[in-house]
Amino acid sequence: MTIAVMQPYIFPYLGYYQLVNAVDTFVFFDDVNFINKGWVNRNRILLNHEAFRFTIPLNKASQNKLINEIEVSDFRKWRAEFLKTLENSYKKAPCFSFFYEWMINFIHTKEYSSISELTADSVKAISELLGVSTDYKKSSDLEYKTSNLQSGQDKVIKICKLLGAVKYINPYNGMEIYDNEIFNSESIDLNFIRMDNVIYKQFRESDFIPSLSIIDVLMFLDCEKVRTLLGKYTLEKKINTDAII
Questions:
Q1: Cβ neighbours of residue 127 closer than 8 Å, sequence gap 6 or more
Q2: What contacts 62, CB < 8 A, 6 or more positions away?
Q3: What are phi and psi of 58, to 5 degrees?
Q4: At CA 44, angle to CA 38 and CA 49, rounded to 5?
Q5: Which of 29, 82, 211, 213 has a 20 to 30 A CA-CA distance from 171?
Q6: Per-domain residue ranges for the chain?
Q7: pLDDT digits over 108-162, tens only?
Q8: What confidence tens digit (pLDDT) does each residue in 160-218 have?
Q9: Residue 67 phi/psi, 5° resolution?
């Protein structure tokens, strides 16, 4: 079994979905501390040919709280404003009609109060739209925490062992925080996923803005084309502190 463990983000960028698609089981790391000004409740879309950051308002968010302890503030108001922003941003995009209708249906499915639930559902719903059949779990549902687990790496390894994983994949930008030898000692194959240089036509073909929310991708490309992008990545291994293959 191959797994990944990641915090739940709101409509994350394409690389996040590549990771989801690359594993058998994806674990939402929802019982770790919330990071202020992180990506749990924020992301970027295209507005007036520039990257625009949208933010879901939270009720008394704090880095002293776990992600699954934090509530959304006035979800209905945010929902209405968000849909209007999407309409203003993308109404001339080629796939607007289809994806905007999809978004309306999704975002009216529940009256969300938990940011953890909203973000996880945003990932699962987009994955389903793209035909991804990965199994999902929440770390808060797993009995993995013990008094001697000090680091994120310790927690990830314990989750891998609990789920019987023999392969773990992490985003490339987290390479420095994981020790290949420790994973090897636990018979877990450690890999890092790096998204290829994916470029698609936005409103201005010559001014591509990368790393926006998956929302941007699906406004410009149909689902079939986006599915092909899920495989546009490379898996790399960390062999020591100086060399990567």
A1: 17, 20, 21, 134
A2: 34, 36, 70
A3: -120, 155
A4: 150
A5: 82
A6: 2-236
A7: 999 999 999 999 999 999 999 999 999 999 999 998 887 676 788 999 999 999 9
A8: 999 999 999 999 988 888 999 999 999 999 999 999 999 999 998 778 999 999 999 99
A9: -55, -45
